[in-house]
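As a warm-up, study this chain.
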Amino acid sequence: MMADHKSLLGISELEPEEILEILDTAEPFKEVQARSIKKVPALRGQTVVNLFFENSTRTRSSFEIAEKRLSADVLNFSVSTSSVAKGESLRDTAQNIEAMNADMIVMRHGSAGSCHFLDRHVRARVINAGDGQHEHPTQALLDASTLREKLGKIEGLKVVILGDIDHSRVARSNMFLLTKLGAQVTVCGPPTMLPAELEKLGVRASTDVRKSLRDADAVNVLRIQFERQHEPLIPSIREYARYFGITQDKLDELPNGMVVLHPGPMNRGTEIGHDVAEKHAGTILRQVSNGVAVRMAVLYLMSGAEVQN
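Now compare it with the structure written out below.
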């Protein structure tokens, strides 16, 4: 189970039983968040370092809140004011941090595979908070937690992942997780944003939004990753919004409704309509809340600690 893993580097490395262990462990931590005193001493005496080489608001804040609610000692490492800005290597930075006796390092980095590299060179446990276009495991876990809350299960669900699939680490982690747990996954987007050989990942590819949504139970809407694109992949934002944006008129065509997820940040009027964002705000904000519980579960399981109420 998860205790057998030194680190959490990606969903692709987990067995279905391990994914379910994390999701099940997150459930009591949701209850902790509803208390007047939102802390348990599970990680008291342990030091967690948040090492973020890319800008982040939601993920970094969510991890920090999760760590503090578990009573860990937390160090936020600011890359812009560190020796990294002077040319220090990732390995030297990590080993200097570990010399401070850190127990876990939560890292986000712009290069795919950076967390695997770090894991090989430090004794501390490493949690991947997003590495390039590779994976974002805790985002997929919180998405799954929210789906399970809304629909009662993952197995057998029909889920559409819509948007800039090729550049999205969220899409990859979600594809791995959902297929491992028995969901049917369709990825949909412009042809220029769909990677080749998607079928090898056990998912179906489509460029027809309305057809993809017709029999689906849920859709996970992704933003366009302009910062990762080297050249324009769509004629215009307006055309993308018209053909690939989730709008109320598209949802009104569905007889059984639809669970709408979005990992954020949302670009209203592009990948999601203003009215859709407002109507499904409860679910989208629930993803944020569940993110704290899921990250508490990951930190707890990776630490091998015992929960004391």
